[in-house]
Structure formats: structure tokens, C-alpha cells
Design a protein that fits this description.
By secondary structure, the chain is an all-alpha fold. It contains seven helices and no strands. The chain is globular, with a radius of gyration of 18 Å. 27% of the residues are buried.
């Protein structure tokens, strides 16, 4: 049996609730465009201020969630992840945030984009299994043509 190597630059896992609060902070701060163009230091400070105003957990857990959020934003700048974000929209971000909570993160390398894609696909599949009979809401009326 191989012994797992300890790397002090690996970031601890975060809880999905903390990661969702981090995502909501980005949206509340009006900075959702960071997922498409990356985050500036101004974006980070505004989002983090909103996050700490709403977060009620320990500082360590909140800090881990923010580190993982900004690493996710950096990883989303790759072409394949950008394409998935454009295709699926906000649902993709929810799945990405959930996946990033438990995926290995190294401070030097960030998230491995391909592993992030696989993890997002696993989260998406797990949600499909958990809610197989969910209602589909239509935003417009669908008319059937009647053959004469």
C-alpha cells in the first residue's frame, strides 16, 4: 500500500454550504463577470467584504472557501471550462462550486482543469440521479400543430 504524500501547500477541503455562500457573495456584489474575465484585486475585495458580512462560521472555514472560490475563478479562465459555462450558465456554476469544495487544490498549481471538468460531470450526474422526476418549467407556451 502506498502512503499518501503530505504537501503543506494543499488547501483543506471546504463544505458545500460555505462554497455556496461564496458564490452568492459574488452575485450579491454584482461581480458575476469574474467567472468570464477573471478577478481583479478590486473584485476580490468587494466580494470578500460581502462574504464576511453574511458568513457566520469560523474564520478558517471562510478563508478556505474564499481561497477555493478564487482558485475556481482562475480555473474557469480555460477555454473548455469557459465553453461549458457559456453552454450551461448558472447551473454550471452551482455544479462547479460543489465540485470545487472537495477537489484537491494546491496553492502553487490551483485546480487541474481536466480534473475539475470530471468532478463537475460527477456532481451533475449525482444530481440527475437524486432528482430524476423533477418538474420542467417552461418559460413560454408550447403549441402543438394539429394535422388537418
Amino acid at each position: 500500500m502506498a502512503i499518501a504524500e503530505f504537501n503543506p501547500k494543499d488547501v483543506a477541503l471546504a463544505g458545500t454550504p460555505e462554497m455556496r455562500i461564496a458564490l452568492q457573495s459574488v452575485l450579491k456584489a454584482g461581480r458575476a463577470n469574474v467567472f468570464m474575465r477573471g478577478a481583479t484585486s478590486d473584485d476580490r475585495s468587494v466580494v470578500e467584504e460581502v462574504f464576511w458580512d453574511t458568513f457566520e462560521g469560523s474564520n478558517a472555514r471562510g478563508g478556505i472557501a474564499l481561497i477555493r472560490l478564487w482558485s475556481l475563478v482562475d480555473a474557469l479562465q480555460t477555454r473548455r471550462l469557459q465553453d461549458l459555462l457559456l453552454q450551461e450558465g448558472f447551473r454550471f456554476l452551482e455544479n462547479a462550486v460543489t465540485a470545487s469544495a472537495s477537489l484537491r487544490l494546491n496553492l502553487d498549481w490551483g485546480f487541474a482543469p481536466q480534473r475539475l471538468i470530471w468532478s463537475i460531470a460527477n456532481v451533475k450526474a449525482a444530481r440527475a440521479v437524486a432528482r430524476p422526476y423533477r418538474r420542467v418549467r417552461l418559460d413560454r407556451v408550447v403549441h402543438q400543430s394539429v394535422a388537418a
